[in-house]
Design brief:
Largest sheet: 5 strands, mixed
Helix content: 25-40%
Strand content: 5-15%
Bound molecules: adenosine monophosphate, manganese (II) ion
Number of helices: 11
Order of helices and strands: EHEHEEHHHHHHEHEHEH
Structural class: alpha/beta
Length: 283
């Protein structure tokens, strides 16, 4: 099945409206879709309505920022009740520090001579609650400091580089609980991105399972084919369901388009089989 269960709209750090994403997913042959904006459910109603109108089965989604072993880890939630109060409160608290963090990032960039980056980043922000490094990256590209966003995330905004501001996000335990207690399924997003040692990665997978986490992204826009194989192995070893999602943000920036991913490696149980009764199907 061509499931794409990870992407971003203008409600977080993507560039397209939820309706445009639904149309793009449909046009690209997606058969099951989820919009997973960072720490935010503001696009869910629109995404579900647009999916329904396009005849596209839909799962609610979000991608929660978590601090684990001093590293930022992303946990995707799928198929939860988007009106769940505890989940909504948890996400609001997780979003809470972004404004101040952004001002500090701009102050750090100013120290290396890059002035006005807060105002510059704001021009790309669709949701004032959700200013992210991606918006700074777009500004740094547009103003000619870097050639593309990839260069931004090598030279700036990452640990050890100008513009990086350490931040405490949600705990792994809370993120998994909020999703699970809202009736959803928690998934470790793009595990190859974290550069953990084998011991740290083992701790992440084990603790995630202890808290009730059920899935791992095996095929994502951030994984090479070898990494997909590696995390297919991890899914089997830890008895986790396998997920698949492009992590599409923008037609101009994203390497992998919505619905354009390779299939899951064989022998894995896909997350969507466990979410059958959570799928919103067009009449
Ligand atoms: P934030 O939540 O503000 O820390 O921003 C994180 C976002 O920055 C991610 O969701 C990605 O969209 C983007 N990002 C992080 N690393 C990279 C990278 N190496 N290349 C492109 N985008 C990145
Ligand atoms: Mn993002
Ligand atoms: Mn992510
Ligand atoms: Mn993402």
């Amino acid at each position: 099945m061509n499931a794409d269960l990870h992407c971003h709209s203008i409600v977080s750090d993507g560039t397209l409206e939820p309706e445009a994403l639904a149309a793009r997913a449909k046009a690209n042959g997606v058969e099951l879709w989820a919009l997973t904006d960072h720490d935010e459910l503001g696009g869910q109603q629109r995404a579900r309505a647009a999916a329904r109108a396009a005849g596209l089965p839909y799962l609610t989604g979000t991608e929660i920022s978590v601090t684990f072993a001093d590293v930022t880890v992303h946990i995707v939630g799928l198929g939860f009740d988007a009106d769940d109060e505890a989940l909504r409160r948890g996400l609001a608290a997780t979003r809470g520090g972004r404004e101040e963090r952004a001002r500090e990032m701009a102050a750090e960039l100013a120290k290396v001579g890059i002035l006005g980056s807060y105002e510059g980043a704001l021009r790309y922000v669709g949701n004032p609650d959700l200013i992210s490094r991606t918006h700074f990256a777009r500004h740094l590209v547009e103003s000619g400091v870097c050639a593309d966003t990839g260069e931004v995330f090598r030279r700036f905004l990452v640990e050890g580089r100008p513009g990086f501001v350490p931040h405490r996000w949600a705990t792994l335990r809370n993120a998994v609980r909020w999703i699970t207690e809202a009736g959803g399924l928690a998934v470790i997003a793009h595990p190859a991105r974290y550069k953990f040692t084998p011991t740290e990665e083992y701790a992440l997978f084990t603790e995630f399972k202890t808290h009730g986490g059920r899935g791992v992204e095996v095929v994502t826009g951030s994984h090479t084919a070898a990494e997909a194989e590696r995390y297919a192995g991890a899914a089997r070893e830890f008895d986790l369901l396998a997920s698949r999602g492009s992590d599409f943000h923008s037609p101009d920036e994203s390497r992998i388009d919505l619905g354009a991913l390779p299939p899951l490696p064989g022998g894995l149980a896909p997350v969507w089989e466990a979410l059958e009764d959570r799928i919103d199907r067009p009449a």
